[in-house]
Design a protein that fits this description.
With 278 residues, this protein is α+β, with helices and mostly antiparallel strands. The protein folds into three domains: 3-71, Winged helix-like DNA-binding domain superfamily/Winged helix DNA-binding domain (Arc Repressor Mutant, subunit A, Orthogonal Bundle); 95-172, 2-Layer Sandwich (Alpha-Beta Plaits), CATH 3.30.70; 188-270. The chain is built from ten helices and eight strands. A four-stranded antiparallel beta sheet has the order 2-3-1-8. Strands 5-6-4-7 form a four-stranded antiparallel beta sheet, with helices on one face. It starts with a helix and ends with a strand.
Length: 278
């Protein structure tokens, strides 16, 4: 796992909704439990400061780090995805968000970025230039982040207004099209299932990760594993997935272990973390 992914889990559990900053030395102590070097931790903290995710607070010779409002928004979104949205979509209303786009050749890089962000947003490619996702999806943030992107090569092409090249619709399937066919065509069901099965292979055991030094390490690894998993999941309607869909068992395992690890992990964190009230 990348140190930054682990850092997001750590901050989501031990910094979000707390008006505190955390001493870098104690962060290094926590991450040593995960096999992450001091150099990697310091580099990750510095990058997150540059990205407006963390802010520094110096007290004497110590440097403390606190969440920015932007970081709090990102972490709150992750918490909702884990604890509220969940891994199994049992409340689908039968609608799809449809995105179609056509970008000029001078915007190949923008086209690639848009595709990547649509995938990250839970969309699947139905056919050339036409993407779908179950339910109502707000794509305005995705489009706004790509507005006025630089062209791929030197030209007189001005900044791009994505609204001129993208169409967003809310739709339902009508015969002869079936919703199950849309799921099968636009999404790699087996690949999604394989990721959940890999999670279960690691965590669905009587004693997961026995090599980890304590429950704080297991907690951070578990949350990082799960958040990466659900963020890659397009949250497809359960009624159109196999009856033995592994996300159901995987979510049960995550929630059980998260509850089991929390008390001892919190006790260890309280003993290790040096915090500064803000």
């Amino acid at each position: 796992m990348r140190p930054q992914s682990l850092m997001f889990s750590f901050l989501g559990i031990y910094a979000l909704d707390r008006r505190t900053a955390i001493y870098s030395g104690s962060v290094i102590d926590v991450f040593a439990r995960l096999g992450v070097s001091e150099e990697a931790v310091r580099s990750t903290l510095a990058r997150m400061v540059k990205r407006n995710l963390l802010e520094r607070h110096r007290r004497g010779r110590k440097m403390y780090f606190a969440l920015t409002p932007h970081a709090a928004e990102v972490l709150e979104d992750g918490r909702r995805r884990v604890w509220e949205t969940g891994a199994v979509n049992r409340d689908w209303d039968g609608t799809w968000t449809v995105v179609g786009f056509s970008l000029p050749d001078s915007r190949r890089s923008t086209r690639h970025d848009l595709r990547s962000r649509l995938v990250w947003g839970g969309f699947g490619l139905l056919q050339s230039g036409l993407w779908i996702a179950p339910g109502a999806k707000d794509v305005t943030e995705i489009l706004a982040s790509l507005d006025h992107a630089s062209p791929d090569h030197a030209s007189n092409d001005p900044g791009l207004d994505m609204a001129d090249h993208v169409t967003v619709l809310n739709a339902r399937a009508f015969k002869p099209t079936e919703a199950a066919d849309l799921v099968r065509k636009a999404f790699d069901i087996e690949q999604i299932a394989a990721r959940y099965r890999a999670f279960l292979a690691r965590w669905d055991a009587s004693l997961p990760l026995p090599e980890a030094p304590d429950d704080l390490a297991r907690q951070l690894l578990l949350h990082t594993d799960w958040l990466q998993l659900v963020r890659q999941d397009p949250h497809l309607p359960a009624e159109h997935l196999p009856g033995d869909w592994p996300a159901i068992r995987a979510e049960q395992v995550f929630q059980t272990l998260a509850r089991d690890y929390q008390p001892r992990a919190a006790e260890t964190a309280a003993a290790v973390l040096d915090t500064l009230a803000l």
